[in-house]
Design goal:
This protein is of the alpha+beta class. The protein folds into 3 domains: 7-57, no CATH class; 63-145, 3-Layer(aba) Sandwich (Glutaredoxin), CATH 3.40.30; 153-273, Up-down Bundle (Glutathione S-transferase Yfyf (Class Pi), Chain A, domain 2), CATH 1.20.1050. It contains 9 helices and 10 strands. The chain has a 4-stranded mixed beta sheet with strand order 8-7-9-10, with helices on one face. Strands 1-4 form a two-stranded antiparallel sheet. The protein is globular, with a radius of gyration of 20 Å. Residues 1-64 have low confidence and may be disordered.
Length: 279
């Protein structure tokens, strides 16, 4: 079978009446044939156990196909868990404890997967991928439906801007490494550490609230009425803000959007308390 980005994959477990289009010929593909954009170089056959989830996304029944190296409290890993769930993809969680024993992320085995000693890392058929937003982009390319980016260029840029503001401007100042440095190397006590965290959360979310409230593109979610990259980033950041008792009264639109997201099973399943390594 073809190994390019548009191929026909045999799916013996396609639901009855599951009709798809063969995009190489434009003809109806029938019950046992399924079309999807797969990663370049992925060769499949009838024995490969490729299955379909509601006609929207592909997965392997063998969950070892994609492994997500994750820490339950990591907001970066949380983003990826949400995206994988929204796209209906099967994956296996491999817990990487960032505190126990000096951090399992610093072990030689994990450093072979991610030399930066950070989570998440997504093990794919093509090898490991790192950095949460890069992983989200990969998932959007190999599994474009349901889309987590708008169709129009301006909308895509807006969603990416919100996501990157959270991932690049807010989160780095408050991640575990920075908080540990403040307490360990700088001698900051717990009250100083919490004041630091709260200050940067308020500063960053103030900007996000203005971005959201000032745009007609904002809907029930950060962009329109379907979740996007932006929501995948916003929910974990707000979760952590609540965990550190940061006041959120000044952000009514953020709270409304997060509340809407939290009604969806994909977001609930990704929550830290629902992870196999939750403490």
């Amino acid at each position: 079978m073809s190994t390019n980005n548009t191929l026909i994959a045999v799916s013996n477990d396609a639901p009855a009446g599951f009709g798809l289009i063969d995009h190489t010929s434009g003809q109806a593909a029938g019950k046992l044939m399924a079309y999807r954009s797969f990663p370049a170089g992925l060769s499949v056959s009838a024995s490969d156990n490729i299955s379909w989830n509601l006609g929207r996304s592909w997965s392997r029944k063998d969950k070892r196909f994609m492994k997500l190296y994750s820490y339950f409290r990591s907001s970066a890993a949380y983003r990826v868990r949400i995206a994988l769930n929204l796209k209906g993809l099967d994956y296996e969680i491999v817990p990487v404890h960032l505190v126990r024993g000096g951090g399992e992320n610093n072990s030689p085995d994990y450093l072979e997967i991610n030399p930066l000693a950070l989570v998440p890392a997504l093990q794919t058929q093509e090898g490991p991928l790192i950095q949460s937003l890069a992983i989200l982009e990969y998932l959007e390319e190999v599994c474009p439906s349901p889309a987590l980016l708008p169709q129009d260029p301006v909308g895509r840029a807006r969603v990416r801007a919100i996501a990157q503001t959270i991932a690049s401007e807010i989160h780095p100042l408050n991640n575990l490494r920075v908080l540990d440095y403040l307490a360990g190397k700088m001698g900051a006590d717990e009250s100083v550490k919490l004041a630091w965290y709260s200050y940067w959360i308020h500063d960053g979310l103030s900007g996000i609230e203005k971005l959201l409230s000032g745009s007609p593109a904002t809907g029930n979610f950060c962009h329109g009425d379907a979740p996007s990259f932006a929501d995948c980033c916003l929910v974990p950041q707000v979760y952590n803000a609540r965990r550190f008792d940061c006041p959120l009264d000044a952000f009514p639109l953020i709270r409304s959007i997060v509340g809407q997201c939290e009604t969806l099973p994909a977001f609930r399943r990704a929550a830290p308390e629902n992870q196999p390594d939750a403490e």
